[in-house]
Amino acid sequence: MNKTEIYREAESRIAELVRDLEDPIAAMASAVAVLHDLLPAASWTGFYRVVAPELLRVGPYQGPVGCLEISFDRGVCGAAARLEQSQVVDDVDSFEGHIACDASARSEVVVPVFDSKGALVAVLDVDSHDTAAFDDIDRTELERIVRLLRPCFDRPSQA
Ligand code: SME
């Protein structure tokens, strides 16, 4: 499958998994499992949740241990949250303030996640051990996928 076909498959699987799911943790965990399984370049796939003004905390992820908290003024994730704009980084060593949870990560894409009211609730981060692994197809497709999760954030996680 080419990249677009992979994302069509991911979107189909995630849409089915999160349909009527009013639990953001379960929705994020399901999306991460599908994406990490299908994206050949992914070495780390996960969410960082907005837990306080200007603060992200790790959510469901797959890959090496990720750092627990990231303030909005740090890293690629902080930039995506602060600017509410996706970040595609071809070479993490050229991104000032990049946070290297995995020393082998070479490139990264981070997209902001919003709830149905348009409030920032998380960012989705995908890292790769390959340089320039992500492009505008990944950015637009991941933005499309996180839109599927919007309704899931409208209710607090179930106990
Ligand atoms: N590289 C990210 C930090 C998250 S770890 O890669 C999972 C950043 O610079 O924000």
Offer a quick outline of the entry.
This protein has 159 residues and is an alpha+beta fold. The protein has helices at residues 3-18, 24-38, 75-83, 136-148; strands spanning 42-52, 55-62, 69-71, 87-89, 107-114, 120-128.
Description:
This protein has 159 residues and is α+β, with helices and mostly antiparallel strands. The chain has one domain (3-154): Beta-Lactamase (2-Layer Sandwich). Helices cover 33% and strands 26% of the residues. It has a six-stranded antiparallel β-sheet, sandwiched between helices. A hairpin with a 6-residue loop joins strand 2 and strand 3 (69-71). Helix 1 runs antiparallel to helix 2 (24-38). It is globular. The termini are far apart. The mean pLDDT is 95. It binds methionine sulfoxide. Residues 44, 66-67, 70, 75-78, 98-99, 101-102, 105, 108, 125, 127 line the site of methionine sulfoxide (SME).
Number of helices: 4
Structural class: alpha+beta
The CATH class = Alpha Beta
Largest sheet: 6 strands, antiparallel
